[in-house]
Amino acid sequence: MDYLELTVQLQPREPWAEVLICQLAENGFESFVETEEGILAYAQVGQIDVAKPESNTFLEDVPEELSVNWSKKIIAQQNWNAQWEADFQPVYVEEYLSILAPFHDRKEHKGLIVEILPKMSFGTGHHQTTWMMSKALFELDELPKKVLDMGTGTGVLAIIAEKLGAEDLLAVDIEDWSVENTEENAARNACKKIRTLCGDIDKIEENDFGLILANINKNVLKAHMQGYYDRLIVNGKLFLSGFFLSDCDELIACAEVIGFKKNRILNKDNWAAIEFNK
Questions:
Q1: Which of 102, 127, 239, 259 is the most exposed, having the fewest neighbouring CB atoms within 10 Å of its CB?
Q2: CA 69/CA 154 separation, integer angstroms
Q3: CA 262 – CA 254 distance, rounded (Å)
Q4: Is 224 helix (H, G, I), strand (E, B) or coil?
Q5: Whole-angstrom Cα distance, residue 121 to residue 254?
Q6: Which CATH class for the 3-75 domain?
Q7: CA 243 to CA 129: how far, in whole Å?
């Protein structure tokens, strides 16, 4: 899958970078990197209008006090992979966890080591949402034995969960390359209990998960909420991330209508994660 990279320079940068990220996230962009000048935004080719990627954002109706310059380019999957292998830095989740690539030095590691060779950027632990979800796993009083990892990406959360004691894990993603990468990374970490599935929530027939991890985006999470509830056991837990702190009230309201009870909210750099109980 090829990706569109949208480079946006903003002057002044604040508060407009966060506003733009929110609007782009609503219009098909999946991942963001904040820069000193503005942001980089990434979307799958085919999911947005590549000819006019700035459509449906404030880039078409710029406030008078804001100067915006933007450019775009297509990144082929093989080039994207090579770039990430070159740029992939170690990730440290406090003292709990080190997420490393095979070529990283192990001398500076902290806590549990998970080795990831990403095919794409998502799920490496660099993004705030994956970092928070990883942290939340370590802070559970007791990890449920059966775990569903929705939008698994590289499989990193499923791998962490197995290493923390989960005995039956299902890692699901709509992208076949992600499923393949999850299987490769599971083998790389000597994980034997992770099953994979290429598809969406409707492909999952099991309803006895003790924990569901869903790091996707707000609209997909809302659409899946009933499906998550139906697939959890009584007193099971749901961890959601992939959205901004400003989206929490909307997601909590959606979850509570179905029957979930909010436990806590985590936040990092204006991104959020929410823990629910069924």
A1: 102
A2: 33
A3: 11
A4: helix
A5: 29
A6: alpha beta
A7: 8
Contact 13, 38 (CB under 8 A): yes
H or E element at residue 129: helix 128-138
88 close to 124: Cβ distance less than 8 angstroms: yes
Distance from C-alpha of 145 to C-alpha of 169, rounded to nearest angstrom: 8
pLDDT value, residue 150: 97
Helix or strand run (H / E) with residue 81: helix 77-87
**pLDDT tens for each residue of the chain, 278 residues long:** 778 888 999 888 877 887 788 778 777 787 777 788 888 888 888 777 666 655 545 566 667 788 888 888 888 766 666 666 666 778 899 999 999 888 788 887 889 999 987 665 455 556 788 899 999 999 999 999 999 999 998 899 999 999 999 999 999 998 888 899 899 999 999 999 999 999 999 999 999 999 999 998 888 999 999 999 999 999 999 999 988 898 999 999 999 999 999 999 999 988 899 999 99
CATH no. of 136-277: 3.40.50.150
Q: Where are the domains of the chain?
A: 3-75, 136-277
Packing angle of the helix pair 128-138, 156-163 (nearest 10 deg): 10
Q: Cis peptide leading into 102, omega within 30 of 0?
A: no
Strand order in the sheet with 112-115: 91-93, 97-100, 112-115
DSSP code of residue 28: T
Using only C-alpha atoms, the chain has a radius of gyration, in whole angstroms, of 19
- Of the candidates 199, 211, 201, 216, the residue with the CA atom closest to the CA atom of residue 251: 216
Long-range CB pairs of 79-85, under 8 A, 24+ apart, other chains included: 80/3, 80/120, 80/121, 81/118, 81/119, 81/120, 84/118, 84/120, 84/121, 84/124, 85/117, 85/118
